[in-house]
UniProtKB/TrEMBL annotation:
Lineage, broadest ranks: Bacteria, Bacillati, Actinomycetota, Actinomycetes, Streptosporangiales
Subunit-structure text: Homodimer.
Residues binding Mg(2+) 1: D65, D68, D86
Organism: Streptosporangium amethystogenes subsp. fukuiense
InterPro entries, sorted: CDP-OH_P_trans, CDP-OH_PTrfase_TM_dom, CDP_ALCOHOL_P_TRANSF_CS, PIP_synthase_PgsA1
PROSITE patterns listed in its UniProt record: CDP_ALCOHOL_P_TRANSF
Gene: pgsA
Catalytic activity: 1,2-di-(9Z-octadecenoyl)-sn-glycero-3-cytidine-5'-diphosphate + 1D-myo-inositol 3-phosphate = 1,2-di-(9Z-octadecenoyl)-sn-glycero-3-phospho-(1D-myo-inositol-3-phosphate) + CMP + H(+); a CDP-1,2-diacyl-sn-glycerol + 1D-myo-inositol 3-phosphate = a 1,2-diacyl-sn-glycero-3-phospho-(1D-myo-inositol-3-phosphate) + CMP + H(+)
Binding site residues for Mg(2+) 2: D65, D86, D90
Entry protein name: Phosphatidylinositol phosphate synthase
Length: 205
């Protein structure tokens, strides 16, 4: 769903990408800096209960995930290594965000929500793994209710609003994300199964 917004975001980020490229900064550097900033901000701010400030800082660094792609297309510097690095560090960034929330819920004695946040972390990794494994086997798996952009938006928006004092929004967002992630895993498993085990034609009577 959020892929529809990518062209507009690309247009906004193109001037910045062009300026960074002129300075000799590679897309891989932006990828690494974005991930490092995301993880550091999540583990610093979230366990302290500074959810809104943390979300704003994390959002700034998450934009690097789009900026590196803009720079790669602009310079023609895209590579297999770059794609692998970007995908791998995406998982690291996601783990940092939800780990920060888990720590906050434990510190604030909200054990149930700590479990839900942990489930979101694990389910998000499984969603990504199913797709990667399917594509490695030569199948497609670009389906699902909650892909990474949707998971990030729901998680960060609910955390940010929760930090502003909106009641129940963080809990509701995490429960929604947990359910959507579980559904997405199921959707992808079924999609891959249909490709791996084609339906046999019924015999003629």
């Amino acid at each position: 769903m959020l892929k529809l917004l990518r062209p507009a975001v690309t247009r906004v980020l193109t001037p910045l990408g062009r300026a960074l490229t002129r300075r000799g900064i590679s897309p891989n550097v932006i990828t690494a800096v974005g991930t490092l900033g995301t993880v550091a901000a999540a583990l610093f701010f979230y366990p302290r209960g500074q959810l809104f400030v943390g979300t704003m800082v994390i959002t700034f660094f998450v934009l690097a995930d789009l900026l590196d792609g803009v720079m790669a297309r602009m310079t023609g510097a895209g590579s297999t290594w770059g794609a692998f690095l970007d995908s791998t560090l995406d998982r690291v960034g996601d783990a940092g965000i939800f780990s920060g929330l888990v720590f906050w819920f434990i510190v604030s004695d909200q054990r149930t929500l700590a479990g839900v946040a942990l489930f979101c972390l694990v389910a998000g990794a499984v969603v990504s793994y199913v797709k990667a494994r399917a594509e490695a086997l030569g199948m497609t798996c670009d389906v699902g209710l909650a892909e990474r952009p949707e998971r990030l938006v729901v998680g960060l928006v609910s955390a940010g609003l929760g930090g502003l004092g909106v009641p129940y929004i963080l809990a509701a967002g995490l429960w929604l994300l947990a359910a959507a992630s579980a559904v997405t895993v199921g959707q992808r498993l079924l999609h891959v199964r249909r490709q791996a085990v084609p339906t046999s034609p019924r015999p003629l009577r």
